[in-house]
Amino acid sequence: MLCLRGNLNAKIFLVGIGPGQAEHMTPCAKAAIVHAPVIIGHPDNLLQIAHLTHGKELLPLQHNPLERSRLAVEKAQNGQDVVIVSSGDPGTYAIAATFLDYLRQQNLNIDVEVVPGIGLASYASARLGAALGNDSAHISLSDQNTPWAAITRRLSSALAADFVVVIYNPFGKLGSARWEEALALIAKERNINTPIGILSQANTSNEKLLMTTLGQLPQIALPTDMLIIIGNSQSYFCGSYMITPRCYKENIGY
Amino acid sequence: MLCLRGNLNAKIFLVGIGPGQAEHMTPCAKAAIVHAPVIIGHPDNLLQIAHLTHGKELLPLQHNPLERSRLAVEKAQNGQDVVIVSSGDPGTYAIAATFLDYLRQQNLNIDVEVVPGIGLASYASARLGAALGNDSAHISLSDQNTPWAAITRRLSSALAADFVVVIYNPFGKLGSARWEEALALIAKERNINTPIGILSQANTSNEKLLMTTLGQLPQIALPTDMLIIIGNSQSYFCGSYMITPRCYKENIGY
Questions:
Q1: Is the ipTM of this complex over 0.90?
Q2: Which of A25, A107, A138, A141 to mutate to test the interface with B (most CBs of B within 10 A)?
């Protein structure tokens, strides 16, 4: 059970750079990136931190966190400290689970530090106002790592129990098929006036915030790269904000 | 519906300072604090940012986010920019929902910016390794703002649907009574070997990380100020890490 404590000198940092803008990247994340000679990550994420990586060995890997994990281990075994960058928070549908599970499977012995980042849901909620103001359920529709039956069971349970529901990766390799199935489940459990907040292309200059209702959603052309927040029975829109209050009755303070 | 767009010159920032250490506070949060002449927050949070607030008007308010909201509005109406600081993320059981809902109830017209912070759950998950590696449900046991029946329904649904469950505020004004009720529900739905990660006093030098199992939990003297992460059916401990993998079968990549 010592599989994850290092006997190498090298260390691997799993670093969350947040939604993309430098103003939302923590000093801890920045310090790890500045420190490590080798930086691995999605090409888009490496571009976002280009101002911090001059003279470093940059290893952009498009698609596969498992590949990033293997490469990071290889570099660390050669004695180099490595950063694997993740957009948002590395612990939320990102590198941390893949990497640590890989180390365990390989029974590898490397020192690891997970550096948290501003997660996409926190960022979207803030941009929307207070969309996540009460209990929330976070679900990825990507079924490459979780059986679809488990995902739909979670979605239905969360909807029935009046959680605010955050949906990650609505459009997967199957296109919009999973999302359309999910939308049917949502329509079964929630009122057509339920507020929906959608953040797309969070990391780019094309970032868009969309506010609509469950009834309007099917009429909207959705971007492929998005995070969807489905309000609970108490959520409402006010001006340019989506708010999920914590008070279920008027005049209840904290 | 223009209730939340400002016609005052003054602006109110709802700022998340993260788990407490400066290394986890974003530049955006720091900039807002440095900018505003008036800073409102819990005394502990004001202490954590004392290095940023020299010469500012500091208004520590122990308990009540509604009081903080009223005071911030009063200051803004006098033309001063205000920061209300929150530990963690202001959108997660913190000031954002309370404040924006208060503005709506009062039909007040003030410019607001929510600045996200590293949430306690992201931080705890990172300290544990990858505790939140798959779908998660976030539930506060504080029933001052949500009926207890709604909370227990959410908890039971989330447990039955195999979410990783994050429990906030397990000990409330009622002491451990709610937590003991919740623990009985957890024991009904989850195996005694279920990994449990507990982070306590995250903001302080007394920060403690505790790893145990559901079976052992009742034997442990729990701190009052804690966040509890209950693993799903796939979660495991390896060395000093708590990991929730995204692979439900061996050898499935992303």
A1: yes
A2: A138
